[in-house]
């Protein structure tokens, strides 16, 4: 069904350390999305790597995206090759992800993947829109992260496409851990008629 789209969100170690768990969950919950899976864990380095490699092109894609971001600001991409840079980010991301507790969540609703990305904001917090989680609660930049040879700390991971969401959900949750249930609010969001409000 159209309103059953699912997506994966992970509050990264910096989000947990900044004590933003409640604030972040609230942002996705208040728009009308339904929380259908939730756990707190410390990922292993291997789990973290596997998470980014659900798309084997991750190193190349992340390298190209970063190069574009540098060029958009009129700066030169300060690394010898896009692929090499991407592999470095994969390694750093795995360290970042496995450095402490994270909160893994599955959210469901109409256009869940895109809606969660909209609420989350762009990858680089300093340029993420006001009103988004990454824009409102932190300030990291590509340049600052690259200078100190670490991953950009942007509080949350959110699946980038339906295909990515399906693969990532299968990685972090068993089928039984994703709950199937109705919320009272679903009736006002999705049902055709409004019978049953007035007594
Ligand atoms: O997380 P998002 O989908 O917005 O971005 P991505 O391109 O899929 O990259 C995944 C993660 O890698 C980002 O959220 C950053 O934490 C990290 N990254 C980084 O540290 N430095 C870059 N130049 C690009 C990405
Ligand atoms: Mg991504």
What features would you describe in this structure?
With 199 residues, this protein is an alpha+beta fold. It has helices spanning 13-17, 21-30, 45-52, 58-72, 82-97, 112-120, 133-137, 142-147, 162-172, 184-190, and strands at 6-11, 34-41, 102-108, 156-158. The chain has one domain (2-56, 90-186): Alpha-Beta Plaits. The mean pLDDT is 96. Helix 4 (58-72) crosses helix 5 (82-97). The chain has a 4-stranded antiparallel β-sheet with strand order 2-3-1-4. Bound molecules: cytidine-5'-diphosphate (CDP) and magnesium ion. Residues 62, 65-66, 89, 93, 123, 142, 145, 151-152, 154, 157, 160 line the site of cytidine-5'-diphosphate (CDP).
**In angstroms, what separates the terminal alpha carbons?**
30 Å
The CATH topology comes to: Alpha-Beta Plaits
Continuous helix count: 10
Approximately how much helix is present in the residues? 40-55%
Overall 3D shape: globular
Regions with little confidence, pLDDT below 50 for 5+ residues:
none
Layout of strands and helices, then pairs:
Blueprint: E1 6-11, H1 13-17, H2 21-30, E2 34-41, H3 45-52, H4 58-72, H5 82-97, E3 102-108, H6 112-120, H7 133-137, H8 142-147, E4 156-158, H9 162-172, H10 184-190
Antiparallel strand pairs: 1-3, 1-4, 2-3
Helix pairs in contact: 3-5, 4-5
Q: Quick gist of this model?
A:
The protein is α+β, with helices and mostly antiparallel strands and 199 residues long. It has ten helices and four strands. The protein has a single domain, classed as Nucleoside diphosphate kinase-like domain (Alpha-Beta Plaits, 2-Layer Sandwich).
């Amino acid at each position: 069904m159209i309103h059953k789209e699912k997506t994966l969100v992970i509050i990264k170690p910096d989000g947990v350390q900044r004590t933003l768990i409640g604030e972040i969950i609230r942002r996705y919950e208040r728009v009308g999305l339904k929380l259908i899976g939730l756990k707190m864990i410390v990922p292993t380095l291997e789990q973290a790597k596997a998470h980014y490699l659900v798309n084997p092109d991750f190193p190349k894609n992340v390298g190209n995206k970063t190069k574009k971001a540098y060029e958009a600001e009129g700066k030169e991409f300060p690394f010898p090759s896009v692929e090499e840079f991407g592999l470095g980010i994969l390694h750093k991301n795995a360290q970042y992800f496995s450095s402490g507790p994270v909160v893994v969540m599955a959210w469901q609703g109409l256009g869940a993947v895109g809606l969660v990305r909209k609420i989350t904001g762009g990858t680089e917090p300093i340029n993420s829109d006001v009103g988004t989680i990454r824009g409102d609660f932190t300030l990291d930049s590509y340049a600052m992260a690259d200078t100190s040879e670490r991953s950009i700390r942007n509080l949350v991971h959110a699946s980038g496409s339906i295909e990515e969401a399906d693969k990532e959900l299968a990685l972090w949750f068993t089928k039984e851990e994703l709950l199937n249930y109705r919320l009272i609010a679903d009736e006002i969001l999705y049902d055709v008629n409004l019978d049953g409000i007035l007594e």
